[in-house]
Amino acid sequence: MTTVHGEPGRVPAVPVVSTGRLGLARVLSPAIVIVVAAALLVAAISNENFQWDVVARYFLSGGILTGLLTTLALTAVSMLIGTALGGVLAIMRLSRHPVTNAAANAYIWFFRGVPLLVQLVFVYNISALYPQLDLNDWLTPNVVAVLAFSLHEAAYMAEIIRSGILSVPKGQHEAASALGMSPWTITRRIVLPQAMRVILPPTANQVISMLKSTSLVSVIAVPDLLYSAQLIYSRSFQTIPLLMVATIWYLIVVSVLSVLQNRIERRVGRGFTRSPQRVSKTSGRGGAA
Amino acid sequence: MTPIVRAAHVTKRYGDHLALDDVSLDVERGEVVCVIGPSGAGKSTFLRCINRLETIDSGTIELDGELIGYRRMGDVLRPLPQRLLAAQRRKLGMVFQGFNLFPHLTVLENVLEAPLRVIGTPRAVAVAAAERLLQHVGLADKSASYPADLSGGQQQRVAIARALAMQPEVMLFDEPTSALDPELVGEVLAVMRQLAEGGTTMVVVTHEIAFAREAADRVVFMADGQIVEVGPAEAVLAHPTHPRTIAFLEAVL
Q1: How far apart are CA A78 and CA A152, in angstroms?
Q2: Nearest CA among B4, B58, B51 for reference residue B26
Q3: pTM recorded for the entire structure
């Protein structure tokens, strides 16, 4: 039998080309996006009610910057305490002891179930529960805020940390045990570094979410970023521009945190993805050994 | 001299299932023992009981005359505290079917981790030893790679180097080539053969009958949680006496 179209294996294949319709969409869709974005920008600039000059005047003012620092400090401290407490709760949840387990479960059930704003106001008024303790002296609004946010955050971090620890395969534990590592060494050197890959991305989300939640403290008069802006506009009635100041600052901080989050994720992901350039870069080193 | 590993009347249950049924085996220093048998025979369970990754229900397992994972208190055995158990496990190297390398550490760090953290070997000494071991398994040029960048055969060779770094008295291999692509089995068996020739005491659970014939001093055939037949490799593999052994070898060869 003779082949008309040439030998087998020599059949030319036509590369995939995009159809005309798709090509049009590829040009049109960014064009639409650009037009809409430009329209929004023009609307924002031309609408005098935004009062951009006021925004510029207050953007770096002392009151706003102090408020920003308070917001950042509140986020950092609450996150640290919340994570530490969350770690303890995670270990309790993983324990085989039923009472320990149930206690952690109850904690998580309560602090995840009650809205953060309710918890905040509740802690703020806790001295009404124990008037004889005279708690008002040290339960300043700042302490109340840190306490409420930390306790709330711990419930979420407990679940994040627990799922991270559970994500490490059993074989890792066995291999480390077989090498004679103590339980503590296994946790610190083998399990936690691997759990971090699962723990860190949602934790970064929690930080971002916490940063925004701290704006709730305006109800208990802690001068954070939002409350500082409110203090100014309650006197000057320049509500919109000062809300814009706060909005822009929140967006800046969240953007920086997102960049950091990406970096951290790449760092803890080491060894979990194939990386051809890393192999070729370092392959010469061991060869000399 | 006492055998390095002495298992006596070991029984292990999973619920109603009797995984190990009165298993007794002595392993002498420098000996290579291959454990063969059908799936579910209890081979891996027995191996895992030796370094107490599995607990046993009755019987004793001794390493160099010392009970593994338990201490005798009157008539019963009580589990040893984790710290003391960890110290015992240093004397046993284990190679797993699924490699179980630490994915967040480089090849060199995988080999270094236990000597540095468990024994406290000075870093320079440990690095020199680790590099020598990696060269021994043919992976000196991969020391800076991460496990994910290696083939299965390479990963298993790193796992062998990692276990050897603790200078164990006995190496336990749990189906070390079963998870490998066929063309990668040879390189791992070659390393194991070298170890066997070098006088390392080895207990190898394997389906590689050819390896057992070549490298083993003794072959143990297990079925249904029991040791059915045990003897010199040549005798068990070429002239099996028990009908179960005969049937198994006919099926796999």
Answers
A1: 9
A2: B4
A3: 0.79
